[in-house]
């Protein structure tokens, strides 16, 4: 079973309010859809930047499939007008976590970024891995 944290505890929520582990206050995480798509949207822009492609607009992400056959596809544009696509193939043992700051990650997935149809990176983890 895939680990989904910060957390989708069976809830499909637009807004989650989380209490810090030390009781120091609340952190609010806003989700624009499901946990997997939100994590890909947040992390994809930095992954493209690390590969040398600055993303001009926020990535738009959609999840298809279920169980061990889930895929998140994100689309956007680079600052040079090139089409950017992020494809995240999740496995049953993948971990997806959305949290404030650098607490968002996707681990144990097949992640491919392409620009104008050419693969520019392939990874198994994005975020704090």
Automatic annotation (TrEMBL):
Endpoints of the signal sequence:
1-23
For the keyword Signal, the answer is yes
Annotated keywords: Signal
UniProt-recorded name of the protein: DUF4333 domain-containing protein
Taxonomic path: Bacteria, Bacillati, Actinomycetota, Actinomycetes, Kitasatosporales
């Amino acid at each position: 079973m895939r680990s989904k944290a910060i957390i989708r505890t069976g809830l499909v929520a637009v807004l989650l309010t989380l209490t810090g582990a030390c009781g120091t206050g609340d952190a609010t995480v806003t989700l624009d859809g499901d946990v997997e798509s939100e994590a890909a949207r947040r992390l994809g822009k930095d992954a493209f930047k690390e590969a040398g492609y600055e993303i001009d607009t926020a990535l738009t992400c959609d999840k298809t499939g279920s169980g061990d056959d889930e895929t998140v596809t994100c689309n956007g544009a680079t600052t040079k007008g090139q089409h950017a696509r992020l494809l995240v193939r999740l496995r049953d043992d993948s971990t997806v976590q959305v949290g404030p700051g650098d607490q968002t990650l996707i681990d144990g997935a097949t992640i491919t970024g392409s620009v104008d149809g050419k693969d520019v990176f392939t990874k198994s983890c994005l975020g704090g891995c």
